[in-house]
Amino acid sequence: MSRFSSDISEIQNTSSYRLSLLLRNILELVGGMIIILAISWKLTLILLSVVPVLAILTVITSYYGRDISVKLQDSLADSLTTAEEAISNVKTVKAFACEMKEVNAYKSKLQKSFSIGRIKDFLWSLFGGVTTFFTNGGILLILYFGGKLILNNDITIGQLSSFI
After folding, report:
1. How far is 7 from 37, CA to CA, in rounded Å?
2. Contacts of 157 by beta carbon, 8 Å cutoff, 6+ apart
3. Rounded to whole angstroms, what are the CA distances from 74 to 69, 80, 84, 109, 124?
4. If DSSP codes are grouped into helix, strand and coil, which group holds residue 23?
5. pLDDT value of residue 109
6. Residue 16 belongs to what H/E stretch?
7. CA-to-CA distance for 138 and 46, rounded, in angstroms?
8. Which run of H or E residues covers position 67?
9. What does the alpha-carbon distance between residue 110 and residue 102 come to, in Å, rounded to a whole number?
10. Using an 8 Å Cβ cutoff, are 135 and 50 in contact?
11. Which of 13, 57, 58, 113 is the most exposed, fewest CB within 10 Å of its CB?
């Protein structure tokens, strides 16, 4: 019963922490949007043009990443089950001289897990690179159009610096 109470307490603490974190992030987002809109609505529109691309990339990567993570966990569980069965039945394995068979079975299942892990790592690395590219592209767009706005006397250098 003590373990159950501890788990319930942990869930309550985690959910209240996440709720406060969510509210804080929403307030920061709204406050930041108000500030950058006040500085330059044109630059804000340019900044927001990058957000849908990043959101779509995040959703797609999360969808495939979750699927690959489940496959990886299942594969690792399968390899551990193979090892556990061989170890728990070590006398039988030795009696029938199947040590190498069990070792090879474990190796092949580990290799499968390794392959899935490489795919997962590649996906997240690709996501990081593409996200960084679009984020830096957004910053370059802001600097480029901000420079044009400065030349047209629509904003000052200080406002562009504040915006960034």
Report:
1. 44
2. 150
3. 9, 10, 15, 11, 19
4. helix
5. 93
6. helix 2-39
7. 8
8. helix 41-88
9. 12
10. yes
11. 13
- Cα–Cα distance, 149 to 60 (Å, whole number): 35
pLDDT at 20 (0 to 100): 85
Give pLDDT, residue 137: 93
* 158 contacts 40 by C-beta, under 8 angstroms: no
3-state SS, residue 98: coil
Give 6 or 38, the one with higher predicted confidence. 38
Question: Helix or strand or coil: residue 126?
Answer: helix
The Cα 29–Cα 123 span in angstroms is 28
Give the CA diameter of the chain.
88
Structure tokens, 10: 């942990």
Q: What is the DSSP letter of 101?
A: H
Place of tokens 């495939």: 64
d(CA 102, CA 105): 5
Distances 107 to 51, 114, 116, 120 between C-alpha atoms, Å: 44, 10, 14, 20
159 exposure class (CB count in 10 Å sphere: 0-12, 13-18, 19+): middle
Burial bucket for residue 24 (CB in 10 Å: 0-12, 13-18, 19+): exposed
